[in-house]
Amino acid sequence: VVKDYSSEIFEQVNASRIVLGIVCGIGFLLIVLFSWIVIGTGIKPLEKVTASIDRLSSLNLKEDENILKYTVRKDEIGKIANAVNSLSRNFREIISTLSECSVSLTGSSETIEHTSGELFESIENNAATTQELSASIVNTNQAIDVMTGEIEKVSDMLEMIEKNVDDGNSRSEHLLQIADEMSTTAGRTLE
Q1: Euclidean distance between CA atoms 145 and 172, whole angstroms
Q2: 1-15, 21-35, 113-127: the lowest-pLDDT one
Q3: What burial letters (b/e) apply to 71-107, b meaning 16+ CB within 10 Å?
Q4: pLDDT by residue (tens digit) across 135-156?
Q5: φ and ψ at 69, to 5 degrees?
Q6: Can you give the pTM of this predicted structure?
Q7: What local confidence, expressed as pLDDT, does residue 64 receive?
Q8: How far is the CA of 180 from the CAs of 120, 151, 187, in angstroms?
Q9: How many CB atoms lie within 10 A of CB 49?
Q10: What integer pLDDT is reported at residue 88 of this predicted model?
Q11: What distance in Å separates the CA atoms of residue 75 and residue 178, rounded to the nearest whole number?
């Protein structure tokens, strides 16, 4: 009787153990599925931000519409999206400034060319009189002073641009470090 009674108890225990094992297995599968969905949802924005960083690294400076919706987020992805967007905007501003400098240099070059032509004409036409030659030299000195002032302005602009580029480079390096850390963290999470 005791033997039969203990076998009944062990049957119930074994049946409970099997049910518990099945419940635990189903629970484990549900946790894995839920984790997979949550991680996948969290990584999708990061993939778009990474794609934007890749476009930026290939010097595609167009504003990325895909990343703008993530700039309002308050988490790390939002911070990275803001940094990438800001970096892209800074690069566009630098290029605009360089274009303005180029236009200024072109204008200055044309002014120098024009002034040089006038000087040459003046020297050819007025070689007979030293007084006219002296006046022409004064005009040339004034033009050179103007050009020196323009060149100093351009030099100041170039120093400012260099500072902005250095700042952009440091932000890029910081952004890449954050992206690497996030990638490593995501990799560890997926493992």
Answers
A1: 40
A2: 1-15
A3: beeeeebbebbebbbebbebbeebeeeeeeeeeeeee
A4: 788 889 998 888 888 888 888 8
A5: -70, -15
A6: 0.41
A7: 76
A8: 62, 42, 10
A9: 26
A10: 83
A11: 13
Q: What is the rounded distance in angstroms from the CA atom of residue 84 to the CA atom of residue 65?
A: 12
* Residue 85 CB partners (closer than 8 Å, separation 6+): 63, 64, 67, 68, 71
Helix (H) or strand (E) holding 111: helix 76-125
HSE toward the beta carbon, residue 56, CA cutoff 13 A: 27
Two tokens, residue 76: 């790390």
**Cα 67 to Cα 13: distance, rounded to the nearest angstrom:** 57
Q: Is residue 160's pLDDT more than 80?
A: yes
What per-residue confidence (pLDDT) applies to 133? Answer: 65
